[in-house]
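anyone seen this seq b4? input:
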Amino acid sequence: MHVAAFMGFADLVEILLKSNAHLEAPTQHKATALYLAVSRERTSCVQALLEAGASAITLDVNGFAPIHLAAHYGFTEILRLILSHGADPMLESVTGDRALHLACYGKHQDAVAMLAQAMRSVDVRDKELRTPIHYCAQRGNIRAMEFLSSPPYSADLRATDAYKDTPLHIACYFGQFDAVRFLVERGAIDYRAENIYSETALHAACTFGRSVELVAYLLRVPAIDVNVQGHDGHTALHSACFNDHLQISELLLESGADLT
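predicted toks r here
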């Protein structure tokens, strides 16, 4: 059954099902036939297995279920089949990810929409307390961020994770200029919010130093002070210098960063 499902031999899967083959028999990695069919986007096999009663929520050795795989790869038709057969979109992976986290990270917009419609809330959190909006910010997934933050979902753009990072922090750390601009233009942002490392959004952009353009943009935001200090006293210039980001350090100095 595992081989037939993996290879996409739908007729053989049907024959094995009529012969009462064990639906939930695991491989040594705890992958079921349904899991293997999903992993290779074998839609016909997936449908046959689901109609025979295969479970879409059984976790493999890495702690992921078929619903997580479908969301991760953006297999929309398979995801629709899985949901229509009663799979819980709130199911957690071993890392606390829901399928929506994975769809947002993979930039699979149709999957994002399908999952959001099936969920009680889109502000679900993984083991590090990150919401799907954090994942969107990390990947620069503006379409999903806009979709999820709009009614009727109204995702929280100020949500903080276990490190007290907001989506704006995450977008700044990863140099996602478009995500930063989206969050700034939405206006639901506290620019002085600090994470556990005493870093504001400006600090974050200067610590990783992935985009000079991004730092320049932040410095043009009236509410952002080039000399803002974290609770430990360090400024964005400290962050840039400590991490050897020469261009960003020069930009901060040109923008009035204090050397004292």
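The chain has a mean pLDDT of 95. Residues 109-118 form the longest helix (10 residues). kinda curious what u guys think
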